[in-house]
Amino acid sequence: MRSWTANPQTPMTNTTTFISELIRAANEVEKLGDFEKRRLLDRAAVMIREMREAAGIPNSHTTADGLIDLQAAAVALSRGQRTPSQIKAAMLAAAGMIRDLHIVLDTETQIQIGK
Fold first, then answer.
1. How many CB atoms lie within 10 A of CB 88?
2. Angle CA(32)–CA(48)–CA(71) in degrees, nearest 5?
3. pLDDT digits (tens, 9 = 90+) for 57-113
4. 113: left (phi over 0), alpha (psi -120 to 50) or beta
5. Domain-by-domain residue ranges, the chain?
6. Staple partner for 94: which of 3, 15, 36, 44, CB 3.0–4.6 Å?
7. What is the reported pTM?
């Protein structure tokens, strides 16, 4: 199985650490600068994309995709178009997506996408 974190020896530790980092940042979003908020959202988007690929989940290009919402929040943040509560919600949503994907990958759950 392909690793989705920077250190292939400890994907579970890196994943859970990043989930914790996102939750902590969401709870202290007012204390973070825009650069740090954007960096966390971008890292989360990359991790989600890689984990989806590892799980065999195809890319979705619909507006119902939480990853697209996350990327849109990151772009809007850099334009000053997101409130702290919106960024907090995006970080918590990202943490939830990563947690869910981690469970799928960890349990080797098979996913079938119907068309």
1. 19
2. 55
3. 887 777 678 899 999 999 999 899 999 999 999 999 999 999 999 999 988 877 777
4. beta
5. 11-107
6. 44
7. 0.81
